[in-house]
Each structure stands twice: as structure tokens, then as C-alpha cells.
Amino acid sequence: MGVGNNGLIEIGEITRAHGIRGEVKVISYSNQPERFQSLRSLYLSSETHPGVWKRILKCQVGAKQTILLLEGLHSRDDAEQVRGSVLSIRKSELPVLPEGSYYIQDLIGFDVLTSDKGRIGTLQDVLDFPAQDVYVIQTENGEIMIPGVKEFIEKVDPSERKITIKPIDGLLDLNAD
């Protein structure tokens, strides 16, 4: 899930047409594909087509796929025309998270520090793996990755835009040749 240049939040992508009535299969960028059921419209954009808002006429969320029928798509050919389009929503449409939870796009760019060594770098990305998220930190000596779990993430301070970590022994020894 990322933030586009237009301030919209990318939440998924159309992977292919489904059936003959204009429905499309969608892959969700989050582990909550049911979010599509609460939405009224989506912003579709791609490299080949200018962005456009489309109302959601029908939504089916299954265990392995989400199928949408969007305004203006009446045939398989129509659905194929939007294949590969990125689906976005306004940031205001994101659900409110419980305290202590954050959207990835809100953490990117935070300073990363340790309580004893001070600032070590900047959070560049958060990778979504089945077991846990992995934080990608850009340091002056290269990139390091740490598991995004309580044992390693001591504190997230949104007001100061800082993340305090407890690094694994040897993790910060990037200068060792």
C-alpha cells in the first residue's frame, strides 16, 4: 500500500477480467480485502490510461480473490481494458487504527535510532512477509533489515517522526570488512 503523487492511497490492483459481464479480479495490497465491501468508489490509474473514479456496483470477497463490478464496465473487453490498473482511495477513507498501530505510508521517512547509539538511519520501506513485517532502514553504510515485531521495535513516536529499535547483536556492524 503506497501513497501516490495525488495524495491517494493505493489499495490494490486489477489482475484480470472475470467472466463476460465486465467484472474484474482484484489483488489487495493489504491483508484486509474485505475493505472493498465498505467502499463506494475507487480511483483507477495506469501507465496507459489517465486516472478516473469508478463507482463499485458489486463486490464479492472470497478466500482467495476479490471480484468487483465497476461502473462503465459492461463486457469482458471493457474489463480487459483496465487490467493492470492500480486501485486507490482517499486517505480519509482509511479505517481508524487502534492505538499503537500505524499505516506503513505514515512511517516511511521516520528517523530510526537506538537508545544507546542514537540515530542510525531512515525507514525506507516495510516489507510484508507471512511471518511478520520487515523494516528496511537506510543507513550511511547501506541498508539493514529488522523484523517488525515488539522484540525489536521499542517505540514509535509519530509526533517526533522517530522509531526506536533494539537491534540484534552485530546488526549495526556494517563497517566490518
Question: Percent range for helical residues?
Answer: under 10%
CATH architecture assignment of the largest domain? Beta Barrel
Order of secondary-structure elements: EEEEEHEHEEEEEE
The CATH homologous superfamily of the largest domain corresponds to RimM
For the largest sheet, list the strands in their spatial order: 1-2-5-4-3-6
In what range is the share of β-strand residues? 35-45%
CATH class designation of the largest domain:
Mainly Beta
| Overall domain count | 2
Low-confidence stretches: 1-5
Number of alpha- plus pi-helical segments = 2
Instruction: Calculate the mean pLDDT score and round it.
Output: 87
- Compute the CA-based radius of gyration: 20 Å
Which structural class do you get from the secondary structure elements?
A: mainly beta
Total strands = 12
Q: Please report the distance between the alpha carbons of the first and last residues.
A: 36 Å
What does this structure look like?
The chain has 2 helices and 12 strands, in the order βββββαβαββββββ. It has 177 residues and is mainly beta. The strands form 2 sheets. Strands 1-2-5-4-3-6 form a 6-stranded antiparallel β-barrel. Strands 10-9-8-7-12-11 form a 6-stranded mixed beta sheet, with no helix packed on it.
Quick synopsis:
With about 180 residues, the chain is mainly beta. It is built from 2 helices and 12 strands.
Task: Record keyword descriptors for this entry.
177 residues; mainly beta; Elongation Factor Tu (Ef-tu), domain 3; SH3 type barrels; 6-stranded antiparallel β-barrel; 6-stranded mixed beta sheet; 6% helix; 45% strand; disordered N terminus
